[in-house]
Design goal:
The complex is a heterodimer of chains A (262) and B (230).
Chain A: H1 2-5, H2 9-33, H3 39-63, H4 69-87, H5 96-118, H6 125-156, H7 158-166, H8 171-174, H9 176-186, H10 188-195, H11 204-211, H12 216-248
Helix pairs in contact in A: 2-3, 4-5, 4-6, 5-6, 5-12, 6-9, 6-12, 9-12, 10-12, 11-12
Chain B: E1 9-20, E2 23-34, E3 38-42, H1 49-56, E4 64-69, E5 72-73, H2 79-85, E6 86-89, H3 100-110, H4 117-126, H5 142-154, E7 160-164, H6 172-189, E8 192-196, H7 200-206, E9 209-214, E10 217-223, H8 224-228
Parallel strand pairs in B: 3-8, 3-9, 6-7, 7-8
Antiparallel strand pairs in B: 1-2, 1-4, 4-5, 9-10
Helix pairs in contact in B: 3-5, 5-6
The chains are: A mainly alpha (262), B alpha/beta (230).
C-alpha cells in the first residue's frame, strides 16, 4: 500500500521504518498497560538502531571501494561496540565490558578468522563484513543473555552460594550450577534458529543470495553454514564470558561481590 | 598452690570493624572466646549481629581490625581453610538438592576427602536423624533440614561453630528440637561456639557469656547473667 504513495526508494524506506516502529510502539503500549515500562529504552534503541545502520550503510559504501584490511578494522570496532552493548545486561558485575569484549573477540573473532582462512567466508569486504557482523551480533545477544541470566541466578541464590563457600568450596564450585544454567539458556535462540531453519523462517541472506543470482540449493546450504557459524561463535562467546565473569564476581578472599542491594 | 590455668582464647577479635559506603556496620569490636565456651551475641534487630558473624567467617572483609584464630591473624589463613575451621550454620539451612548423605559429604569432598558411611551415621546420630542418610532433602521438615545443616557443618570438624539465629525461622516445636540438638553437641563435645540470637532466653540456656551489640558497637560483655540483667 505504501508504494502507492511513495515512488522514490528513500521516502518509501522512511515510511516503512515509521510503520514498523509504530508496530513496535504498539507492543510497548500494551506492555505499559501491564505495568511494564519499556518506553524510553525502546525509543532510544530504535532511534539509535536506525541512525547506526544508516551510518554503517554509508560507511560500507565507502569501504567497498577501499582496501580489504579495512574490513578487519570495521569488525574490530563492531566487537568493541557489541561488548559495550551486552555489558549493560550485566549491571553490577565487575569488569562486564572487558569480559564481554574479550569473549566476543575470542568467540566471534576466532570463528570469523578460522572460517575466512578456510575459505568458508569470502575475503571480499562485501562478504566478510556482513557475515562477520552477523556472527558478532549474535554473539553479543548470547553474551548479554548469559550474563543477565547468571546475574539473576547468583542474586537469587546468594544464600546457597555463601553456604557452599562457608563449607570450604572453591568459588568456581559454589556457582557451578548457575554458570551451567546461564550457558545453556543463552544458547536457546541459536539452537532454535538452527532447528527451525527453513520451516519457521527463511533468513534474508538466502533470499538475498538468490536474488543476486546464486543457485537456490547453494544459497540454502550457505544459510545453514552461516547459522552453524553463528552457533559456534555464540557458544564460544558464552562459554568464555561465563568462565571469565565467574572469577570476577568474587574478591581475592573468595567473598561474593554480587549481593542484592549492594 | 597455683591457680587453675585458663585456656588461651581460641578466637580473638582486635578492633574489628566494617563500614560500607560511609555506613558503619561494625565498629571496634574487641572480644575473645575461650576453647569449649559458648558466647552469645545478642542485641536488637539491625544491631549488626549477623554482620559480625560474617566477618568472623570472612564472608565479608573487615575494613578495620582483624581476627586471630589462636595466635594467627586470620588473613594469613587461606579462606577455604579458615571457613572449614570456623563452621557456620545459617538461619536458613540452604540444603543442596539431593540426599541428606550428599549434603553431609559436600564439605569434606571440597578437600578431596570422602566421608565414610560410618562417619555419616555418626553425624546423623549426633543430630538425632539416624536412618535419614538416603532421604531426599526436599522431603524434610524445617527442623530436620536445620539439623542436617548442623550435621553438614560438623562434617568439616570445625574448631569453632558459628550459629546465626539457627532457630528463628522455625516453629516452636522445631525450635526446641534444634536447640536441644545444638545443646547436646556443644555440651558433649565441649565445642567452642558463637551463637547469634535475638532470643535472650535461648542465649541464657545455651551460653556462658555474652556480648551485647547496639548500633554495631559492643556495649556490654561478660558472663551471660551480667550482660542480660545489668
Amino acid at each position: 500500500m505504501l508504494k502507492v504513495f511513495f515512488s522514490d526508494q528513500l521516502p518509501l524506506g522512511l515510511a516503512q521504518a515509521l510503520v514498523a516502529a509504530l508496530a513496535a510502539m504498539f507492543v510497548v503500549l500494551l506492555a505499559r498497560r501491564r505495568g511494564i515500562h519499556l518506553e524510553s529504552e525502546t525509543i532510544i534503541a530504535m532511534v539509535r538502531g536506525l541512525v547506526q545502520i544508516v551510518a554503517v550503510g554509508s560507511i560500507l559504501l565507502l569501504l567497498l571501494r577501499g582496501p580489504r584490511w579495512t574490513s578487519g578494522l570495521l569488525l574490530a570496532f563492531m566487537i568493541i561496540a557489541a561488548g559495550a552493548t551486552s555489558a549493560r545486561r550485566a549491571k553490577g558485575m565487575p569488569g562486564a565490558f572487558q569480559v564481554s569484549a574479550c569473549s566476543i573477540a575470542l568467540g566471534a573473532g576466532s570463528i570469523i578468522a578460522l572460517m575466512t582462512w578456510l575459505g568458508v567466508i569470502d575475503t571480499a569486504i562485501t562478504s566478510l563484513v556482513p557475515v562477520g557482523s552477523m556472527l558478532i551480533a549474535n554473539s553479543m545477544n548470547t553474551n548479554g543473555l548469559a550474563l543477565n541470566r547468571l546475574r539473576a541466578d547468583v542474586l537469587a541464590h546468594v544464600g546457597e552460594i555463601e553456604t557452599a563457600l562457608a563449607l570450604g568450596a572453591e568459588t568456581k564450585n559454589s556457582v557451578a550450577p548457575y554458570v551451567q544454567a546461564s550457558f545453556e539458556a543463552s544458547l536457546i535462540p541459536a539452537i532454535d534458529s538452527l532447528r527451525s531453519l527453513g520451516i519457521v523462517w527463511i533468513p534474508g541472506l538466502m533470499a538475498g543470495m538468490m536474488l543476486s543470482g546464486a543457485r537456490p540449493v547453494y544459497a540454502a546450504i550457505y544459510q545453514f553454514v552461516v547459522l552453524a557459524m553463528i552457533f559456534a561463535a555464540s557458544g564460544l562467546t558464552s562459554l568464555v564470558s561465563t568462565l571469565l565473569i565467574r572469577e570476577r564476581i568474587f574478591t581475592t578472599a573468595q567473598q561474593l561481590i554480587l549481593q542484592p542491594g549492594r | 598452690m597455683t591457680p587453675p590455668s585458663t585456656p588461651d582464647p581460641i578466637l580473638r577479635t582486635d578492633r574489628l570493624g566494617r563500614a560500607v559506603k560511609d555506613k558503619v556496620l561494625i565498629a571496634d569490636a574487641t572480644f575473645e572466646v575461650r576453647a569449649g565456651k559458648v558466647l552469645a551475641i545478642v542485641g536488637p534487630s539491625g544491631s549488626g549481629k549477623s554482620s559480625l558473624l560474617r566477618l568472623l567467617n570472612r564472608l565479608d572483609e573487615p575494613t578495620s581490625g582483624t581476627v586471630y584464630l589462636g595466635q594467627t591473624d586470620y588473613r594469613q589463613i587461606a579462606p577455604r581453610d579458615l571457613r572449614r575451621k570456623l563452621g557456620m550454620v545459617n538461619q536458613r539451612p540452604y540444603l543442596f538438592p539431593g540426599t541428606v548423605e550428599q549434603n553431609l559429604r559436600f564439605g569434606p569432598l571440597q578437600r578431596g576427602e570422602p566421608l565414610s558411611q560410618d562417619a555419616i551415621d555418626q553425624l546423623l546420630l549426633r543430630v538425632g536423624l539416624n536412618g535419614y542418610a538416603s532421604r531426599n532433602v526436599s522431603n524434610l521438615s524445617g527442623g530436620e533440614a536445620q539439623r542436617v545443616s548442623v550435621a553438614r557443618t560438623l562434617a568439616n570438624s570445625p574448631e569453632v561453630l558459628l550459629l546465626d539465629e539457627p532457630t528463628s525461622a522455625l516453629d516452636e516445636t522445631s525450635k526446641l528440637e534444634v536447640e536441644s540438638c545444638i545443646q547436646n553437641i556443644i555440651r558433649n563435645q565441649r565445642l567452642t561456639c558463637i551463637l547469634v540470637t535475638h532470643d535472650t532466653a535461648q542465649a541464657t540456656r545455651l551460653a556462658e557469656c555474652a556480648l551485647l551489640l547496639e548500633g554495631g558497637r559492643v556495649t556490654r560483655a561478660g558472663p551471660i547473667h551480667e550482660v542480660l540483667h545489668a
